């Protein structure tokens, strides 16, 4: 997908379709239609008279232009009421346009920068442009690499041009397009990793993928193999791996070490369970295939690194990804087993399906060695979080309100929204063990919170936020600009958070 910006008018821009946005407000729509009529010389107002197009959200209509237009198709796209316009509505409108273009089997589309949006939306021209490109490009994502029949491999929109006739503004539009190019590719990468089946992406190949991304975009990747993991005493990762034929990996990503002094260090931790069967506490078989996406936290971290490195963000970043399958077998960890984590704390494994926290415990302990200013972990950690928040909000818990506020703000802006759940002291006793420092399950209630409390036991002297992305990473139904399957959630959220980073 190629995103660009051009200084062009709607008559000049070259693409298979030129898209322009119209508002629903009656007077405004009339005025916009009149303006278009001048350039178009068609009876465009018939659209309003027939009520075929009212400028509402989700509406689009394609017209055919005279040949003095460089693009032979013109698409009108509704933005709804002007006063209610938001960045997210712009993403959705661009997605509407892109899906329409895709359905017409077009190869390229041009989107006019809606200059009126600047008056209502508080974000900058660059932000608006970025949102438009994101909405369009992300809605076009498909995971089709394994299809061999042609009909499944229909032509795709491969080029998106943002255009604006104003020389000064187009510079800002270009900034947004450039950031979008990087961010979209990072989200695509995360989605590809999530959607890949577990016979393609397993700990060793996940590490390879991280290495390739590092090479492409400019960050360092060190892969710790089983021997090293044993020497370090990462008992959580080893216990979960015990039942698997495939060895574990502990993947360390590092970017911008030179920025450490001036800007400080953020550690991103991602759950890298490449397939979660539940282990001996076996999951039911219905929908178990979704558990190939139990490494979505890892995918988000790799995607965020790719974007941060390409955008050359001024910060020192460390990524930690404990990676293993969770399998049942004669050698698998069993309920009642007691294990020793990195750093020496012990835990009782009451349920082998609560494996994510076991491997994250090692990583959170290991994070301390970088003396980080903040640690953010992302994990498809609990079904309980999906019960609580569904697919539209990520569960957030942590030990620092300031840090959580920043993630909340980044979530609102990117619409990868996060919502706090309480980590009250009272929940702590639910994971008390009779035989070890802590137990890996807390009973029936508040499952997302007891999981976070387990993690908290291993958190060092740093500001920490845990993001439970179980509902937002794995989509059972498509959303506006994300198809069913892996959403790539976390990439845009983290990049937005890191772009605003101040130590
Ligand atoms: N990977 C799952 C959580 C999950 C469930 C993610 C559904 C996405 C969709 C996790 O490892 C798990 O199985 N958690 C258990 C914990 C329980 C045994 C305490 C759960 O949520 O049921
Ligand atoms: Zn599990
Ligand atoms: Zn899991």
Describe the protein's architecture and organization:
The structure is a single chain. The chain has helices spanning 26-40, 45-49, 87-103, 117-120, 125-139, 167-195, 203-217, 226-232, 235-241, 260-263, 296-310, 356-367, 383-389, 401-414, 447-456, 470-473, 491-499; strands at residues 2-7, 18-22, 60-64, 73-78, 108-112, 159-164, 220-224, 249-255, 265-270, 272-276, 316-326, 338-340, 346-348, 374-379, 394-398, 418-420, 438-439, 463-468, 474-475, 485-486. With 503 residues, the chain is an alpha/beta fold. The mean pLDDT is 97. It contains 17 helices and 20 strands. It is elongated and about 80 Å long. The strands form 4 sheets. Strands 7, 8, 9, 10, 11, 14, 15, 16 and 18 form a 9-stranded mixed β-sheet that branches. A 6-stranded mixed β-sheet has the order 1-6-5-2-4-3, with helices on both faces. Strands 12-13-17 form a 3-stranded mixed β-sheet, with helices on one face. The protein starts with a strand and ends with a helix. 38% of the residues lie in helices and 20% in strands. Helix 5 (125-139) packs parallel to helix 6 (167-195), helix 7 (203-217) packs parallel to helix 11 (296-310) and helix 14 (401-414) crosses helix 17. One zinc ion binds next to strand 10.
Summed over residues and divided by their number, the pLDDT gives a mean of 97
| Overall spatial form | elongated
Strand content: 15-25%
**Contiguous runs where pLDDT drops below 50 for at least 5 residues:** none
- In whole angstroms, how far apart are the ends? 34 Å
Structural class: alpha/beta
The overall strand count is 20
Helix content: 25-40%
Catalogue the ligands: ligand BES, zinc ion
Q: What's the total helix number?
A: 17
Radius of gyration: 24 Å
- Largest β-sheet summary: 9 strands, mixed
């Amino acid at each position: 997908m190629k995103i660009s910006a051009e200084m062009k008018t709607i008559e000049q821009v070259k693409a298979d379709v030129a898209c322009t946005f119209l508002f629903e407000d009656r007077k405004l729509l009339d005025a916009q239609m009149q303006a278009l009529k001048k350039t178009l010389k068609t009876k465009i107002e018939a659209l309003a008279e027939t009520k075929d197009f009212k400028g509402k959200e989700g509406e689009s209509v394609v017209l055919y232009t005279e040949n003095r237009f460089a693009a032979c198709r013109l698409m009108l796209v509704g933005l709804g009421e002007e006063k209610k316009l938001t960045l997210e509505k712009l993403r959705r409108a661009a997605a509407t346009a892109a899906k329409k273009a895709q359905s017409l089997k077009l190869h390229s589309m041009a989107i006019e920068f809606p200059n009126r949006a600047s008056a209502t939306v508080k974000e900058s021209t660059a932000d608006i442009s970025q949102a438009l490109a994101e909405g369009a490009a992300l809605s076009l994502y498909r995971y089709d690499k394994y299809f061999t029949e042609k009909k499944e491999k229909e032509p795709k929109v491969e080029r998106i041009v943002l255009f604006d006739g104003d020389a000064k503004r187009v510079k800002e539009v270009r900034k947004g397009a450039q950031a979008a190019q990087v961010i979209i590719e990072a989200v695509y990468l995360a989605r590809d990793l999530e959607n890949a089946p577990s016979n393609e992406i397993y700990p060793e190949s996940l590490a390879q993928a991280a290495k390739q991304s590092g090479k492409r975009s400019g960050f360092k990747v060190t892969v710790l193999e089983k021997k090293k993991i044993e020497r370090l005493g990462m008992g959580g990762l080893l216990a979960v791996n015990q039942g698997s034929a495939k060895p574990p990996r502990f993947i360390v990503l590092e970017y911008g070490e030179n920025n450490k002094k001036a800007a400080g260090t953020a550690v991103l931790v991602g759950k890298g369970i490449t397939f979660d069967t539940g282990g001996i506490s076996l999951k039911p078989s219905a929908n178990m295939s979704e558990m190939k996406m139990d490494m979505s936290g890892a995918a988000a971290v790799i995607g965020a690194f790719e974007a941060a490195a390409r955008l050359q963000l001024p910060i020192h970043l460390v990524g930690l990804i404990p990676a293993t399958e969770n399998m049942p077998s004669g050698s698998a960890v069993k309920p009642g087993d007691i294990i020793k984590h990195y750093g020496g704390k012990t835990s009782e494994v009451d349920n082998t399906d609560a494996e994510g926290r076991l491997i994250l415990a090692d990583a959170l302990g290991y994070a301390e060695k970088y003396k980080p200013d903040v640690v953010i972990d992302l994990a498809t950690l609990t079904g309980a979080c999906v019960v609580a928040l569904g697919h539209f909000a990520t569960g957030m818990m942590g030990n620092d309100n300031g840090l959580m506020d920043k993630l909340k703000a980044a979530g609102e802006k990117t619409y990868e929204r996060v919502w706090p759940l309480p980590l009250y002291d009272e929940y702590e006793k639910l994971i008390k063990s009779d035989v070890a420092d802590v137990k890996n399950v807390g009973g029936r209630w508040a499952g997302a919170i007891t999981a976070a409390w387990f993690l908290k036991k291993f958190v060092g002297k740093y500001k920490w936020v845990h993001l439970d992305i179980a509902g937002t990473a794995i989509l059972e139904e498509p959303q506006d600009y994300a198809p069913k399957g892996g959403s790539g959630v976390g990439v845009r959220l983290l990049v937005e958070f890191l772009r605003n980073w101040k130590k």
